[in-house]
Design brief:
The complex is a heterodimer of chains A (280) and B (309). Chain A is mostly helical. Chain A contains 14 helices and no strands. Chain A is globular. Chain B contains 13 helices and two strands. In chain B, strands 1-2 form a two-stranded antiparallel ribbon. Chain B starts with a helix and ends in a 5-residue tail after the last helix. The chains are: A mainly alpha (280), B mainly alpha (309).
Amino acid sequence: MRQPGERRRGLAGLLGLALLVLVALLFLYPVLLMVLTAFKSTPEIFRSPFGLPESWALDGFADVWRRASFGRYLRNSLLITGSSAALLLLTAAPAAYALARYSFRLRAGLFLFFLAGIMVPIRLGILPLYLLMRDLGLLDTPFSLILTYTASGMPMSVFLLSVFFRHLPRELEDAARIDGCSELQTFWRIMLPLVRPGLATVVIVNVVPWWNDFFFPLLFLQSDTWKTIPLGMQIFFGQHLIDWSLVFSGMLLASLPLLIIYLLMSRQFIAGLTAGAVKG
Amino acid sequence: MANARRWWGRHGHLVVFLLPALLIYGAFMAYPLVSSLSYSLYEWDGFIRRGFAGLDNFVTVLTRWPFNERFWGALRHNALFFALTFVIQTTLGLYLAVLLARRWRGSAFFQATYFLPHTLSLVVVGFLWRMMLNPTWGAVAQGLRRVGLEEWVQPWLGQSGTALVTIILVNAWAWLGFPILVFLAAIQAIPKEFDEAALVDGANGWQRFRFVSFPLLLPSLAMVSILTFIWDFNAFELVFVMQGASGAPSYATDLLATFFYRTSFGDPTTGGEPGQTGLGAAIGVLMLVIIGIVSAFGVRFTQRSQTEY
């Protein structure tokens, strides 16, 4: 069966396809150029900016790894993003469950309280947040970022998960109770595993912006110990601005983790990120 | 005692479920945002709070030089930022979504490609384009030279006249995939029968889009516009990475968020003035108010144009 729009594809259709291809090149080419340039030496970049690299040597990457303590930034980014995701799931899921499946006096008010933050950018509260972190002694530790990320992800996650929980049938809960499960056991053993797609969406929606975040590390981290990849790379790029080979290798190295995951599961990525934004 | 135990027996699980989320969200998001307001009403000496200042901080930001010039300038830049992004995404972005909805072979490839920049950190996007736009060695300049358009080569990021628009276009490169894919999902959610009925009635392609699809797409268009607006009024990273915290050249790319950052924490590029907490908080509150008012209007519009099918 052909789609209705497909019936007359003639010249207009061809022009449409040309536009799609042109825009795809516009998006793809800079990324491709970054990958190719990362393998070139600085003189080679200036000599032949568009060609394939003369060799696919990994020296540039080894150089970045060594000079920028990239391994440490990678570990920090993994640790901070991973802990934030775990903490967010552990706190948002039970809250969403309580708001979706129980009726109690404060329910509507609490739900509104969570919902109120859904479109508010947490950055605008940075001054009190910064002083709070300072007073708690959390500046320059990963906890400042983990707590900030978890808090900022809370409204959307509570909302998304409560939608998922609301769609579970009531009989499941009743059956669990008859079998002697406590409220906590019902949640943890029966209901939580059933909203796994929701948990996955929450993780995808939040992890990408956290991984790439630059603003909060810039303000919260001073020493090199806990710097994440974006902050570490920004400083590194600034110091080696003339050494294009080093900068391009660093850019590719910094982007590689998410690029690989994206190549493997772009469909889930796109579905998660657009769903998260639209449902809000 | 017995009462407390009975209360806990009946409501204890709710406390266990809700308290951790409430504590983290309350302490690290709700509290900072709300107390920004009180910060803005006080006089500050660095990070030490002095006397009550009423609305003095707001008066200073809005009327006293150099803050007024910076604030209104940044506001204009943010407005242009949003306006241009909005035009690009609702013309080119929407058109690309309509094209993609026709189910080409390789449609999945196009979608993945358009969304690709969303996986990159804005730090990388900023440096990548800073390199590409370098007027001597950058790929754009070299490409133009190769095709004989040497005279088109300019220091795009170095001149006041072109820097801001260049930043906005780089941002559009990083952002456009999102609106395209949301529009695409909205188009695909429209039941096929609507289009077919209009076709039977003799409507041409443009009429079917204008009078059938477009009204049904309005909620998504409004929704994405609100998100774009919020995003654009918080834009910070690209300017910081490409033009520095002061929005070089001579504040031509300064945005509200960079102004907010500089005023709050001092300008790291000049290394000079320390942060001015009261003024910074006032700028933050003004940004919250702008974002709040515009989003509230947008959400009301979205709800009014909401359709069920």
